[in-house]
Design brief:
By secondary structure, the protein is mostly beta strands. The protein has one domain. Helix content is about 0%, strand content about 70%. The protein has a 9-stranded antiparallel sheet, with no helix packed on it. The chain is globular and about 40 Å long.
Length: about 100
Amino acid sequence: MSQGSLKYALVGFVTLDGNGNVTTGSTTEANEQFSSVCTDSLAGTNVVNADGTGTATITATNTAGGCGSEIDTFALVLSSGGNLVNVVLTTPARKAVAYGALYKQ
């Protein structure tokens, strides 16, 4: 992923309760901007439409490292019978290109 000319990468998990809530989650992020490896806890909401498209709003609260806490929005599409979710960051102020996939465990 990139934020301007700065690079960052992240890996993590989220737990969705099926009622529109992100109940738990965590990410570990390597961030060139902060020259740090950071850990965040996640919470938020999601909406999935009948056609498998939707949106999510995720609050990432920094728990370790020098990165700040943030709230981001995402567009999403479910596929493979709901076992795969493709996501794209849609937070305008981030000025970042970010996309990824969530796999059901």
